[in-house]
Amino acid sequence: MWRGSRRQRTARIETLIGPNTEIHGDLRFSGGLHVDGRVRGNVIAEGEGRSVLILSEHGHIEGEVRVPQVVLNGTVVGDVHASERVELASKARVTGDVHYNLIEMAIGAEVNGSLVHVTRAQAGSETAAPGVEPRAAPAGAGSGGGE
């Protein structure tokens, strides 16, 4: 049942950030991006394509992630916005909110934040506005566990 869903990832991996690489600053890409290293900045997919971010178990991102599809098996400290799907593998660690249209979560994955379901239309508008910081919630909408 779950194996078929893995075949939906259609983007080729065109960019690799190796395990001994650290990037400071925002990273914008299209197509496929595989991160084995560390990124200190936002990771944003651009263009109309079916971009995919794959974060290996050794990968680490400190910043916001805005992509159509994401497969996480490493650490993200920041919010994740996926307009299509999120796959959280067993070693995924997210400290921040995960905004998703479709989600798959393996046993062992951790999310220290909220899981927020969004429609494709809502998710598309979120990923189209990468300069906006969506951290503030309307009054009374949060769980009171802010800062």
What's the arrangement of secondary structure elements?
Layout: H1 2-6, E1 13-17, E2 22-24, E3 27-29, E4 32-35, E5 38-40, E6 43-45, E7 52-55, E8 60-62, E9 65-72, E10 75-77, E11 80-88, E12 93-95, E13 98-100, E14 102-105, E15 110-112, E16 115-117, H2 120-127
Parallel strand pairs: 1-4, 2-5, 3-6, 4-7, 5-8, 6-9, 7-9, 8-10, 9-11, 10-12, 11-13, 11-14, 12-15, 13-16
Would you give an account of this structure?
With 147 residues, this protein is mainly beta. It has one domain. Helices cover 9% and strands 44% of the residues. It has 2 helices and 16 strands. Strands 1, 3, 4, 6, 7, 9, 11, 13, 14 and 16 form a 10-stranded parallel sheet that branches. A 6-stranded parallel sheet has the order 2-5-8-10-12-15, with no helix packed on it. It is globular, with a radius of gyration of 14 Å. It starts with a helix and ends in a 20-residue tail after the last helix.
